[in-house]
From TrEMBL:
The protein's name in its UniProt record: Antitoxin
Stated family: Belongs to the phD/YefM antitoxin family.
Range of residues in the leader sequence: none
UniProt-listed InterPro entries: Antitoxin_Phd/YefM, YefM-like_sf
SUPFAM superfamilies, per database record: YefM-like
Gene3D superfamilies reported for this sequence: YefM-like domain
Domain of life: Bacteria
UniProt function note: Antitoxin component of a type II toxin-antitoxin (TA) system.
Pfam families found in the cross-reference section: PhdYeFM_antitox
């Protein structure tokens, strides 16, 4: 387990994340004033499973679904 101080973590965050992602480090402790403050660990791979097409056939999309696109865009861009 590697331990780094806050300043090191700020200046080398990308390197630290690379070490976690590649498996070179399983955990990195970030310390503030010499005391452990946080742990950098890999994110568990919790696959959500297949999502594309899960609602296929459950509802009908009207042919004019895009009819108000310009109105909606105008509301966002012009602020109302």
């Amino acid at each position: 387990m590697q331990s780094v101080n806050m300043l090191q973590a700020k200046s080398s965050l990308s390197r630290l994340v690379d070490a976690i992602e590649s498996g070179r480090e399983r955990e990195i402790v970030i310390a503030r004033n010499g005391r452990p403050a946080a742990r950098l660990v890999p994110v568990e791979d919790a696959s959500a499973g297949p999502r594309i097409g899960v609602a296929k056939g459950r509802f009908e999309v009207p042919d004019d679904i895009d009819a108000s696109n310009e109105d909606v865009a105008r509301l966002f861009l012009a602020g109302g």
